[in-house]
Amino acid sequence: MKRTLSFLCALALIFSSVIAPIRVQAVTGEEHVHTEIASGECGDNLTWTLDEGTLTISGEGDMWNWESREAAPWYGQTVTVINVEEGVTSIGDYAFNFYRDCVSFNLPTSLKKIGAFSCTDMDSLEELVIPE
Description:
By secondary structure, the protein is mostly beta strands. The chain is 10% helix and 36% strand. The protein is built from one helix and eleven strands. A hairpin with a 2-residue loop joins strand 4 (46-51) and strand 5. The longest helix has 13 residues, at 2-14. Residues 11-34 have low confidence and may be disordered.
């Protein structure tokens, strides 16, 4: 099962996103500090955080499915690293479709399912971490 999952994900990533950054401006006195932090829910017990190009999915359980890449909550953001943390059991349909700036994709041992078109068109991918 793990070999099949690893093979399918690796194959999908070989054939594989472009996102414009969200800018949240924090003002401290007269100094302006720009950060790229966004977050939200992406499953009944899952959350996502995007911080300076690193998208982290954390929590327990399955990620929601989306009908298109534009429906994923982080769509339109620059993502260079995707970290799916331990406890996440599935990646939803179209979750990371067309993220051409992504260079690193890390998957947990808890992952059991990768949805349709969830990790395709990642042309810049240099590192795929699939634990044993």
